[in-house]
Amino acid sequence: MHHPHARSFHPFLSRALCVRLIMMQRNLFEAGGPQTLIDDASGRIVLTPDLVDEGTASAWFRQLYDGIAWKSGRRLMYEREVDVPRLRAHFRTDDPALPDALRQALDLVRTAFAAPFDSIGLNLYRDQHDSVAPHNDKLADIVRGQPIVLLSLGATRTMTIRAKQPPRHVLKVDLEAGSALLMSWETQLHYDHAIPKQRQPVGPRISLAFRVREAGEG
Ligand SMILES: O=C(O)CCC(=O)C(=O)O
Ligand SMILES: [Fe+2]
Prior knowledge:
21% of the residues lie in helices and 36% in strands. It is α+β, with helices and mostly antiparallel strands.
């Protein structure tokens, strides 16, 4: 996955500088090659802006948006039960009912990132009010050393990636349709990621989270 021209920069640089570097990278790599956002002792985060072409991405979006039995969840917050502010679904990849779009996406990411993904978590952000709070993915559920890949479909949302250690600098990454964001296992120890609510109206977005889980676990 190392792109010959990929630049990396240090996660603890000032926020303004990081944002400027990301914009520079956008200009440098308009062709859409992988962009290494972090690559050091804290782990590796790589954005591949156009892993999936536009037509395929929108066909997959349509199929999943209409075809998945999306579930709303409840969770405890400050001792009250509230709705999880997005819809979700989950498949193990050996599920005979795995939708076609997920089978194709799975084949693509397994090949592109050379990891034996066996679990696909789906998130549907209906509009600008939906979000995921800052968190790291639970490492107890993921085989040690295996990455997480987030494939985005539909509207573009911004992900924030924040270092856990002070001064907790933040990267902001626009996740466009067809893009894939790889986060190495170690990054979950050092960063929280989130999709914040936004003021600006936005259409629905679906993310597919590919993980390698321990055998026998959901
Ligand atoms: O929607 C995304 O890209 C992020 C989803 C996420 O962080 C998760 O499912 O753990
Ligand atoms: Fe996550």
